Amino acid sequence: MTEKLLQFIWQFQYFNKSGLATTDGIPLQIIIAGQYNMNQGPDFLNAKIKIDDTIWAGSVEVHINSSDWAKHHHDHDKNYDNVILHVVWEHDKLMEGKSQRFPILELKSCVSKILLARYESLMNANSFIPCEKMINEVKSITWHSWKDRLLAERLSRKSMMASVMLQKNKQHWEETFWWLLARNFGTKVNADAFEAIAISLPVTILAKHKSQIHQLEALLLGQAGLLNEKFNDEYPLLLQKEYQFLKEKYSLKPIKLPVHFLRMRPGNFPTIRLAQLAALIKESAHLFSRIKEAETVVDVKKMFDVTANDYWLYHYKFDKAAAYRKKDLGSSMIDNIIINTICPLIFAYGIYYKDEKQKAKAMKWLEKLSPENNAITNGFVKLGIENKNAFDSQALIELKNEYCNKKFCLSCSVGNAILKN
User: Fold this and answer.
1) Which of 35, 196, 220, 263 is least crowded, fewest Cβ atoms below 10 Å from its Cβ?
2) pLDDT at residue 233 greater than cutoff 80
3) Percentage helix, strand, coil, to 5, in the chain?
4) Domain-by-domain residue ranges, the chain?
């Protein structure tokens, strides 16, 4: 038995309540179990119980053993003066001091052994998810409501990065979007470096050069430290010259973080991603404002229909010619941007301005995108769990990372349903 499990059992009243009595043998009836308290003080607040013929209102404290009251020094804590019931797994000793003022309820003989066995099975499981052998017992209605909450939790958690950025740039939403967008273009390997590039180049500077693609590329590639070599091709020499001029004009300092090419698909090389980012800046103005006003995800996708300039048709790196290939963003990259940057920021905007329409729009857009296919989503699909769109994918990723991996089964609607069964 753990204290978390006992709190769970009390919160959802998963025990036999017929013929309940205190450890002194006095009849006890639970009217309201109380609200779980996540702050300092007793475990449950605003509870109501009937002992003999008297109704009591106050707090409930939960422990494994009744002796834990003294071990936790509650006798000397005024936060516990309002306790009306001490719920324990085992009443191991007579209490003294303040604890004599309220009754004790022992639950050891009231809880189903099946529930305890299932909980032990979940905690000891070493499978993809703890409940995979029992997951088919969970009804679809439970899954639907739980996925809604999981997605909201994921978007809220991911929006915290935006909140930190907004504090740094004095609530500048376009600037924040630029930082997050650049980070996304860097993929996992170069995310930090690309974010640093974006921070070093404010949108006000970029806006002054948005009509000249070579100047935008010079700024981005120069700040990345990718224009420091001796080149033969005319185009990188032009960018080098432009960057030296712009660097002095704006007192720019190249970022200190390196950008990486190793073990990366050529289409994800930082040269290509920065060139695509430059093309996007050239083709768009006040991009976040336009995205905010968009009604459908199709409208948003059109905003990212850009291609790197002609030099990159035959190159992935400077001075190294390659077979012709158009360097557009591609549908999977655009979907990735919408899933991991746009929807979290739109949701963050909705939270900040208490705009439920924007929050709902972010979730709706995810429903319209193709599902993500990765180790996590594929693992759930093998267990028969639906993954029909990006809404599902993001919810399942949140479930796996924040609940299953941490074995927070007691806080999970699926785990709750399994234990209840």
Assistant:
1) 263
2) yes
3) 55, 10, 35
4) 3-111, 169-343
